[in-house]
Amino acid sequence: MRWRLLSALALLSPVLAVPQVEADPAPEKAAEIPVAPVAPAASPASTHAPTVFNGQTVPPMRELKGATLDEDISKGYWFVEFFSPYCGHCIKQAPIYQTLYEFYYTSKPVPTSKEKEGADSLNTFTRFYDLKFAKLDCIAYGDACGAKKVQSFPTLALFKNGELVKSKVGTQSLKELSKWVEETLESIRPGSRPAGGVKLPKVGAKEVEGGAKPDGSEAKGKDPAAGAAAASKQNALASASVSSASPAKTSSATLESDYHPNPAGTSMPLTAEKFQKLVTTTREPWFIKFYAPWCHHCQAVAPNWSQMAREMKGKLNVGEVNCDIEKRLCKDAGVRGYPTMHFFRGGERVEYDGLRGVGDLIAFAETAVESGTGVVDVDAAAFSAMEEKEEVIFLYLYDHATTSEDFQALERLTLSLIGHAKLVKSKDAKLNERFKISTWPRLLVSRDGVPTYYTALAPKDTRDFRAVLSWMQKNWLPIVPELSSSNAREIMDGAYVVLGILSRDRADEFVVAKREIKNAALEWIDKQTKAFQLERQELRDAKQLRIEEAEDRNDQRALRAAKSIRINMDEIPRKEVRFAWVDGVFWERWIRTTFGITVKEGERVIINDEDNRRYWDQTITGNPIVPSRTSILETLKNVVASPPKLSPKSTVSSIEHFFFRIRQICSGHPYLALAMGLVVLVGGSIWGRSRMRRRNGGFFQLNEKEGLLGNVGGANGKVD
Ligand SMILES: *[C@@H]1O[C@H](CO)[C@@H](O)[C@H](O)[C@H]1NC(C)=O
Question: Model's pTM, two decimal places?
Answer without folding.
Answer: 0.52
